[in-house]
């Protein structure tokens, strides 16, 4: 009998991990409380996005912090009690918003995303469903010149990594 592995979670990451482990000859059991793809995979709409290389703690975070700390935005919510118990982690998170760390993080994320894109295409081909992939890109819209200017960090990162 070969090595047995249990993969918890049948979202896109769990399914891909299970398939790769199976391809490498392991006996894989995939476990989820829901049928495959109904939880986190439904939340991201099945998007394979090269543009996902932008970490939340980017150099513009310090400028956004006063607004984010009001705790009333859709992109950032927190529990005060949790934050108080994890002040060391929060300080480290903010410290990693420096440009040098940001560039290192986006380069690492780009390497992972480039690899995952190739692997996703391979899996789609193996399943005979590549026709379901629509590769039409993203459109970013800005409501004002100020919003456009605020997006310079992301635009520069995308340009640096050919996104």
Describe this structure in words.
By secondary structure, this protein is mainly α. Helix content is 51%, strand content 6%. It is built from 8 helices and 2 strands; from the N terminus they run βαβααααααα. The chain has helices at residues 12-23, 40-43, 61-68, 80-85, 87-95, 99-127, 145-150, 152-160; strands at 4-8, 27-31. A two-stranded parallel sheet has the order 1-2. Strand 1 (4-8), helix 1 (12-23) and strand 2 (27-31) form a beta-alpha-beta unit. The longest helix is centred in the C-terminal third of the chain and has 29 residues, at 99-127. The protein is globular, with a radius of gyration of 19 Å. The N and C termini lie far apart (45 Å). The relative contact order is 0.12. The mean pLDDT is 88.
